[in-house]
Write a structure and sequence with these properties.
single chain; 93 residues; mainly alpha
Length: 93
């Protein structure tokens, strides 16, 4: 298998992983409320929101890691093709 094919496959896997995490995080936050519960009668809603926030907090580091991996792999792809252009047109020699 050639380097270019492996490079694109790794990049695609990282992008799919990141997209899946973003979709999962979006699914988790669809029921999240942007309000503060001040009265004790809303304890059940407050508990539900705390569970949602806890789940999102667990996913957030993975989202950051996936984003960093996609950016790093994109840089590898760009550098590979810039290097290929430079070598093909003999700019370096």
């Amino acid at each position: 298998m050639s380097f270019v094919l492996v490079m694109w496959i790794v990049w695609a896997v990282f992008v799919v992983f990141m997209a899946a995490l973003y979709i999962y995080r979006s699914y988790l936050t669809k029921n999240e409320e942007d309000q503060i519960f001040l009265d004790d009668s809303f304890n059940s809603e407050k508990a539900e929101q705390e569970v949602i926030v806890a789940k999102v907090a667990k996913v957030e580091p993975l989202v950051r890691i996936a984003w960093i991996l996609v950016v790093a792999m994109s840089i590898v792809v760009i550098v590979y093709y810039v290097r290929d252009v430079v070598l093909q047109f003999h700019f370096g020699s």
